[in-house]
Amino acid sequence: MRQERIDASQMELLEKVVSIKRVTKVVKGGRNFKFTALVVVGDGNGHVGAGLGKATEIPEAIRKGREDAMKNMITVSLDNNSSVIHDVIGKFGSASVLLKNAPDGTGVIAGGPARAVIEMAGIKNIRTKSLGSNNKQNVVLATLAGLKDTKSPEEVARLRGKSIEEIVG
């Protein structure tokens, strides 16, 4: 099953930097610093992606992270009150993120890294719980994996060979 590419150049994308890490390499002449930026981009309307950029300067690392995030965008299916369609657990490495459907008026109940992904995706009502590892990169990727695993009622009906009324009703 191939993942369809989302053309990010046509979208009005917002970005959020989740974390910036500094790595130091000690060499004969002193210390070399390199930066890693974890960036989440999204249009606030069901499209979101995350990327990692590494460079010697922070702005350059953020730019590279944004470009990587645009390459790794996914489409999220939302219900009529801007929440996920069904409860799902996203896993990446040892990080797991539980994403629970929420009624209108709940708001976004999520921790830092998961919140960044959810806000960029345009989800307005959701409850989440980060389980396992609290590594920011793994939590972001686990959240994306969970959002990618959600299936719309139309998709479930097509996979089962039934009508949407049989699935929903």
UniProtKB/TrEMBL annotation:
Domain S5 DRBM: residue ranges: 13-76
Any one Gene Ontology cellular component term annotated for this protein: ribosome
Ribonucleoprotein keyword on record: yes
Pfam families: Ribosomal_S5 (PF00333), Ribosomal_S5_C (PF03719)
Keyword rRNA-binding set for record: yes
InterPro entries attached to this UniProt entry: Ribosomal_Su5_D2-typ_SF, Ribosomal_uS5, Ribosomal_uS5_bac-type, Ribosomal_uS5_C, Ribosomal_uS5_N, Ribosomal_uS5_N_CS, Ribsml_uS5_D2-typ_fold_subgr
Entry keyword set: Ribonucleoprotein, Ribosomal protein, RNA-binding, rRNA-binding
Domain topic, free-text comment: The N-terminal domain interacts with the head of the 30S subunit; the C-terminal domain interacts with the body and contacts protein S4. The interaction surface between S4 and S5 is involved in control of translational fidelity.
Cited HAMAP family: Ribosomal_uS5_B
Summary of the function given for this chain in its UniProt record: With S4 and S12 plays an important role in translational accuracy.
NCBIfam families the record matches: rpsE_bact
Subunit-structure text: Part of the 30S ribosomal subunit. Contacts proteins S4 and S8.
Similarity comment text for this entry: Belongs to the universal ribosomal protein uS5 family.
Name of this chain's protein: Small ribosomal subunit protein uS5
Lineage, uppermost ranks: Bacteria, Bacillati, Bacillota, Clostridia, Eubacteriales
